[in-house]
Specification:
- This protein is α/β, with parallel strands linked by helices and 346 residues long.
- The chain has two domains: 211 residues, Alpha-Beta Complex (Spore Coat Polysaccharide Biosynthesis Protein SpsA, Chain A); 65 residues, no CATH class.
- It has 15 helices and twelve strands.
- Strands 1, 2, 3, 4, 5, 6, 7, 8, 9, 10, 11 and 12 form a twelve-stranded mixed β-sheet that branches.
- A hairpin with a 4-residue loop joins strand 6 and strand 7.
- The termini are far apart.
Length: 346
Amino acid sequence: MTAPKPPPSCPPAPLPTLSVVMPNYNHGHYLEAALRAHLDQSAPPLEIIVVDNASTDESCAVIERLAADHRNLRLVRSGRNGGVAAAMNRGLREARGDCVCFSAADDLVAPEFAGQSLRLLARHPAAAFCFSDVAVLLGDSGNVRRLPLFLSGDARLFSPLEMGRVLQRHYFNFPSHSILYRREALLEVGGFREDLQWVADWFTNQVLAFRHGACYVPRVLTFFRVSPGSYSARGARQTEAQRDLVYRMLDVLESDAFRDVARAFRDSAVVPELRPRVLLWLLASPRYRHYLTPRLLARLVFRGPWTVVRPYLPDGLQRAARWIGCAPRRRRVGGQAPRGLRKGGG
């Protein structure tokens, strides 16, 4: 008797194409390493678009030299420095890929960054983006701090409802430098609101997650450089400007374009920063006080002070505190200890 033939297996879905957008302003000394990390991906990008914000250093010369050997790399010059969000939107309009990522000129990506993220998005076409665990490059020291999120033991999709539940239990910001967006979903939401300045990507990420869900890879695939002069660090230190951006974000959330996700924002108790001053800002304004739920109040009271004192603590104490704080999530997903400071980019 002839054995029955196994059913034909479905061929894997083709990988979406990827456009890399890299805003740049006077990061010429980092650019070549950042660009080569994308050029050397196991799943090469369709194109790399560097949007230069009127740099005055050697940035454009570095890009043009590399572009002479790589046809998928091109330079887009801006006549003035209109800010990071404007550069990201310019690159988004120029992009032709199915997906797009926005990589800072001083960041690095692992060789499997694009491949792993694109394969997961191919399996879950409803998701608006894919994100992964984070690692921080500590300036130019060569030290790397890995910061796993411990959201799942395996790569997976979080539906919009699941994403809301996760954010209710655990406060974290989607690491924009590790995100691959579906270009159409990003265009549909209007890209990045330039009036929200340094919280523009935070707002867009939350909207997309609550509308479409997101994929997650529990691996460090990108390396984000932190330095005292970075754009986000400067913004966080500008107290009045940050308060005004929180208020503006809440106004935008109540507009017709985003009213469908306003309740998810509030129920999940998400804010652009988790410092005690946000509690004072919300309490001081009758217009925005409704956003202060018991969950958000608890986060600001019990976790907010940690965000203030953390930068002043020795690194070993910071790692120990994170190890204790992540214990419940780590046990749930079977995760291992996050590796702390070590030399190199791995």
